[in-house]
Design brief:
Structural class: mainly alpha
Largest sheet: none
Number of strands: 0
Distance between the termini: 37 Å
Helix content: 55-70%
Number of helices: 5
């Protein structure tokens, strides 16, 4: 399926919060990651801001969490994300 989307930066970030979540379907994550990698070629700062919802909130908002927010790696990953925005 060919698709053309017109999105502003905030909408790309909002879609990423859901589509990059570990609870998203594997094919959905794969395709959205490809979108972000293409975006990175022209807008690397925006691509760096595209993360799952738990990175923004500091916890998982899902009823059945994937468990990432409860791992030792999560605070390190969030810190790396915050530093990438500087």
């Amino acid at each position: 399926v060919n698709m053309r989307l017109f999105l502003n930066a905030q909408e790309i970030i909002n879609i990423s919060k859901v589509r990059l979540c570990n609870k998203a379907e594997a094919k959905t994550k794969e395709i959205w990651r490809q979108v972000i990698e293409e975006l990175r070629k022209t807008e690397p700062e925006l691509a760096n801001a595209c993360r799952p919802s738990c990175f923004y909130r500091g916890f998982c908002p899902e009823i059945k969490s994937c468990g990432l927010a409860n791992t030792e790696i999560f605070p390190i990953a969030v810190n790396d994300y915050i530093n990438s925005l500087d």
